[in-house]
Design a protein that fits this description.
Layout lengths: L1 H9 L10 E3 L8 E5 L1 H13 L3 E5 L2 E5 L2 E2 L4 E5 L3 E5 L30 E6 L2 E7 L2 E3 L16 E6 L2 E6 L2 E3 L4 E6 L2 E6 L2 E3 L3 E6 L2 E6 L2 E3 L6 E5 L9 E7 L2 E3 L29 E7 L3 E14 L2 E5 L4 E15 L4 E5 L13 E16 L4 E4 L6 E14 L33 E18 L8 E16 L8 E12 L7 E6 L2 E2 L1
Parallel strand pairs: 1-3, 2-4, 3-6, 4-7, 5-8, 6-9, 7-10, 8-11, 9-12, 10-13, 11-14, 12-15, 13-16, 14-17, 15-18, 16-19, 17-20, 18-21, 19-22, 20-23, 21-24, 22-24, 23-25, 24-26, 25-27, 26-28, 27-29, 28-30, 29-31, 30-31, 31-32, 32-33
Antiparallel strand pairs: 33-34, 33-35
Length: about 500
């Protein structure tokens, strides 16, 4: 442990002036998975805090606990073989009560409260949760409320700074395995999760690095950027890097045990198939700015979703080197909507300057295509798709009725399935000003009756080196209400510029 302590000191995780180790067993923890260790753990944390900071050490064993109260300059270190097990609320104890939040009407219950969690910290600095042990939120419940004071989240942090979560494994994390709201200078690295709802929610945070994580979240999003109104004001999530991560939607627990099963997709709460994706939104009051996502893998889950529907500005996003396989809805979903869940008078938001490059998708669900959609009067702006290849699997029935008009549904919850079957198999673009497609290849297996691309109510669209698998008896690119459209150097298409057209088939 001296070597461990030295590493923690030189990396700045603990206060170098007062670096000490506090073994929870020395404070009475039984680590037998039967007796509650809540008091012993919190006593160890309190002692470390009074000493000016240090490492609260969990040796091998199973620690049954309710709420643990983090303090500044504290590291929780879970050694190999150590498991922190969330207790189920019983007559013998319960989690801390959810704190009052006057702004809870603007986001789901789970986003509005932090204290009703297994590990929580509020207005802290220089904290860490590290080690090769396990945090198992078995006793946590998503539907905690004032009437049902169960534990809601595994780790919840509010208004903290200089935070590190590294190397741990998180199982059954409750509503969120990690909820970070208003957390700045935040690093999550080499974390493994197999969890029953959201994996990591990064809400109203600044200067965030997520790397080398594997997150299986079949019933909700794996890694979700949000900008809610939970703090009582609009604060953007900005300056974020996400790299070298794998997200998936295998049956709960089968990522952790290595069997990777795909049999329980009907258990997903919205009945729309496994989730497990990287997403921006839906809570989107404060905005998303200066985000980079790179070198990530999606498997058996929903596609990448960028959503702003509550008045937020989403801008300056770069996404690069993504591979996807067995995607259950739209591989790419960019949605500017007008749900407007926030303070009255907030205007519709904006989405602009998004660059998506080097994306390879195989066996995606053809019902939904990839979707880029604003709303009437509020165009998405300046979108670039470069070096994209998507192969769609056959629809379940070639006789499925395909609507000619896609409903706007601008006030609806933003989810590809709620927009219905797309009238194009590959790419559907609507209400966009400025979109560039370069070296985009779209193809399908089986039988198709729809065009590859539909562009509707779009200005300033440039297509270069486009390759689409043709569909017999139909145009492969359908244009409706376009201004300033061009296509060049594309296989099977003549170079063409169109200044304005209400209806054209290419």
């Amino acid at each position: 442990m001296k070597a461990l302590l030295f590493i923690l000191i030189i990396t700045g995780i603990v206060n170098t002036a007062a670096a000490q180790q506090f073994n929870v067993k020395d404070f009475g923890a039984k680590a037998d998975g039967v007796n509650l260790d809540t008091k012993a753990i919190n006593d160890a944390v309190e002692a470390a805090a009074k000493a000016g900071g240090g490492t609260v050490y969990f040796p091998e064993g199973t620690y049954l606990s309710f709420s643990i109260h983090l303090k500044s300059f504290i590291t929780l270190y879970f050694d190999n073989g150590a498991t922190l097990l969330a207790a189920d609320s019983t007559a013998d104890g319960k989690y801390d009560a959810a704190e009052f939040n006057a702004n809870d009407k603007f986001q789901d219950y789970g986003h509005s409260h932090w204290h009703n969690s297994l590990i929580w910290g509020d207005s802290l600095q220089h904290i860490a949760i590290v080690g090769t042990g396990v945090i198992n939120g078995k006793g946590l419940r998503r539907n905690a409320s004032e009437r049902r004071p169960w534990g809601n989240k595994a780790i919840a942090l509010r208004l903290c700074r200089n935070v590190i979560i590294r190397d741990i494994t998180l199982l059954n994390g409750g509503h969120f395995a990690i909820l970070a709201t208003g957390v700045d200078n935040f690093t999550v690295d080499n974390v493994k999760m197999d969890t029953n709802r959201d994996g990591i929610d990064i809400d109203c945070c600044n200067n965030v690095h997520v790397s080398n994580c594997s997150i299986n979240a079949p019933w909700d999003d794996a890694l979700c950027l949000k900008s809610s109104y939970a703090l009582g004001y609009a604060k953007p999530t900005e300056n974020v890097t996400i790299t070298n991560c794998i997200v998936s939607g295998y049956d709960l627990g089968t990522f952790y045990n290595g069997t990777y099963q795909r049999n329980e997709w009907k258990k997903v709460p919205d009945k729309m198939g496994p989730t497990g994706r990287i997403k921006f939104g839906t809570e989107s009051n404060g905005g998303f700015k200066n985000i980079s996502i790179s070198n990530c893998v999606f498997e058996y889950c929903r596609g990448l979703a960028l959503e702003t529907v509550d008045g937020a500005l989403l801008e300056d996003v770069v996404i690069d080197n993504i591979t996807m396989k067995d995607i259950v809805n739209a591989p790419l979903f960019l949605r500017l909507g007008a749900r407007m869940r926030g303070p009255a008078g907030t205007p519709v938001g904006a989405m602009r300057r998004v660059n998506i490059s080097n994306i390879n998708v195989y066996n995606a669900d053809a019902h939904f295509a990839s979707i880029i959609s604003g709303v009437p009067g509020n165009d998405i702006e300046d979108i670039q798709l470069n070096n994209i290849r998507i192969v769609y699997r056959p629809m379940d029935s070639v006789t499925t009725k395909i609507p000619l008009i896609v409903p706007e549904n601008e006030k609806d919850y933003p989810e590809p399935a709620r927009m219905g079957i797309m009238p194009a198999y590959g790419l559907y673009i609507r209400h966009v000003n400025g979109v560039s497609l370069n070296n985009v290849q779209l193809s399908y297996s089986g039988v198709e009756t729809r065009p590859a691309i539909m562009i509707d109510s779009v200005r300033n669209a440039e297509l270069f080196r486009i390759k689409t698998q043709p569909v017999p008896g139909t145009g492969n690119i359908i244009l409706k209400n376009v201004e300033n459209f061009s296509i060049k150097n594309s296989e099977g298409y003549k170079d063409k510029k169109i200044k304005q057209s209400s209806s054209t088939a290419l």
